[in-house]
Structures are given as structure tokens and as C-alpha cells.
Amino acid sequence: MSITLPSGPCRLGVQVTLDAGELTPMKDRSVILLFVHHGTTDSAMNAKFVAGDNGEPDYHRTLTPDNTGLMYFDLNLPDNLTDALDIYIKLNDEPRYTRGTNEWMLSLTEHITDHTSEVDKLEIVSGTPQWTQLPDRKPYADLVVKATHGGAPVGSARVTWAVTDDPGKTKTTVPSGPVFTSGGGLARITPVAGTNKGQLTITATCNGHSVDFHLVVLPARGDLMLVSPVLPAIISAKATTPVTVKVRLVSKSDQSEFWPGIPCRFIHTQNPINGLVAENTPAPDARITSDQRGDLPPFNVHFSSLGRGVHRGSIDYLAYLPGDDTTPASATISLSVR
């Protein structure tokens, strides 16, 4: 038997009878109910029996019919139940999972009225930018969007998801089918990080409106380093005039490969040579994040004294990188001014 229900809480009743020429209510027999998932989607796995007083898990209930053979149970069905969900119902004192006249399979499906055509705006709620790192690949946080019409949330609207820009071929995946928005207009997915490093874009689309999430699969700490972009050989400026410089987060194996949106922790600058001084650097232990070019926040360097001729000097910039909070990485900033 199959029935269709709305998402959210609902109550069902089942009557247990003995067929001995006529239907006689069975009022003294314990009955068990179990969800049968058959390897279905995560959505179906979120269906739950509303907890009873006996501390049973939310996928299992044990009930006793009343004098008329009736028993009632409460369910909480998830939004977007894309697959049918079966409830296995049988007499508790019979062998389990034995097909016969003393068991019953109830198939539940969810009826969804499609409101996709009403959506006039799709916006990001959370999930961008973010990153994970090889080899552990800590799970990404959910990507969440909101569908609205005239500012009001639209429920039961189809949102499709796709990896639209993956130059690094990270092998990151997203659900293949659409996700329907909840009553609050929200839809979410959890992307599965790929096994290759790289940057990628995941696009959510609803009724022709799209938004982009920017994600990174960062290489292991051993393949990360800091570099200072090359400055002109000699800068025509007074020795004490500050020169703005940056430090960039790149791959050791390919220094043209930079990493945006990555948090690091600044330590300090050290080992100044020939009086080179750094100013406007982050505070010690400050959390800093690389920009879209992989650059950490810019700062200034200058020489501490005046003098004729060409002044040359260098200073080291130190920061902890993701994956290693014990050994700081460093970049050497070299400056020559006339």
C-alpha cells in the first residue's frame, strides 16, 4: 500500500485484526514499526518517528493496539523526500523480516507542489568562500541559498546544483538531482570535496536565477609556501619613502598557482638587513586571509636612514599556514631604492 503525505509532522493510524472468517481486532499483541531505507537518499534517512516515552530510537517504535485494534504513531517527514520510504509493520512476537500474513509494508511518498516559477530572486545565505585541505579533506559546510518572490520566501521551488568551473579538476561532487526549498525558502547541499587540489565554482540555479559559491581544495602543507612578488630591480624613491609590498600564498610545485580565501596566522617580520623596516604589518598572532590573487594583506617597507646611492636590504615575513601550526613559513622581501 502506498500513501502520499506532506512534509513535516503527521499522524497515522493502523488497525490490527485477525482474519478468521471475519475481522476481529487484536488488542493484546505488541506491534513493531521500522523504517526501511533500501539505501535511499539522505533526505529519506532524515525521516523519524516522533519519540515515545520508552526511549526507543527514532527509526523504531513498539506499540500496543487499543480495544478496537487501532494504534497511532507520529512521524516527522523531511522536506524534499525524493524517494519513497517504506515502513515495515509486523507483530512483535513473530520472526522478524519474514514475509507473510502477519506483516505489512507501508510505502510513503511526499507530494510537492512546484512553485519554481514564482521565484524572482535567488541569494546566498552561507557557504562561500570556503576551503578544505588534502589529504584529510575536512567536510565542507553546507551551501545554503534562499529563493524569494518580492522579498517573501518561496517554498517547494526546485534548485539545481552544478560544478561549473573546476580548472583544477578537483573531482568535487554535488547532488545530481534538484533540491526543493523548505517553507522558509531555503535549499542546501553538502558538496563532497574531491581528491585533487584546485579551485572550483558551484552554481545554484532556480527559475533562471543563479548564484556562485567559490570553494578550494587546498594542497597539503608540504606543497604550500609564501613568496613575495618580484619588485623592480631599483625603485626610484627616497630611501625612507615607504614601498608597498605583498606576500602571496602559492604552491611549491607551481608558484604560479595561488590560493585565495585561505586563513593564515601572522607571526612577525625578522632578520632585517641594511636597516630595512616593515610597517603597518598585522599584529602578532593576527588571523589574516589571502585575497582573490592569493595575496595576504599588504604592508610597507622602508630604510631607516638616509644616504646617497643605492640602498639594498631585505626582511623576512613569517606566518603559519593551514595544516601546520608549529612551523611558520617565510617569505623574503628584498628592496633596492635609489
Could you explain the architecture of this structure?
The chain is an all-beta fold and 338 residues long. The protein has three domains: 2-110, Immunoglobulin-like (Sandwich), CATH 2.60.40; 116-218, Immunoglobulins (Immunoglobulin-like, Sandwich); 221-337, Sandwich (Immunoglobulin-like). 1% of the residues lie in helices and 49% in strands. The protein has one helix and 28 strands. The protein has one helix at residues 42-45, and strands spanning 2-5, 8-15, 17-19, 23-25, 31-36, 48-49, 60-63, 70-77, 85-91, 103-110, 121-126, 130-133, 143-149, 152-153, 158-165, 179-180, 186-189, 198-206, 209-218, 224-227, 243-245, 248-251, 263-273, 276-279, 287-289, 299-303, 311-321, 324-337. The chain has a five-stranded mixed β-sheet with strand order 1-10-9-5-7, with no helix packed on it. It has a five-stranded mixed β-sheet with strand order 12-19-18-15-16, with no helix packed on it. A hairpin with a 2-residue loop joins β18 and β19 (209-218). The model has no long low-confidence stretch (mean pLDDT 84).
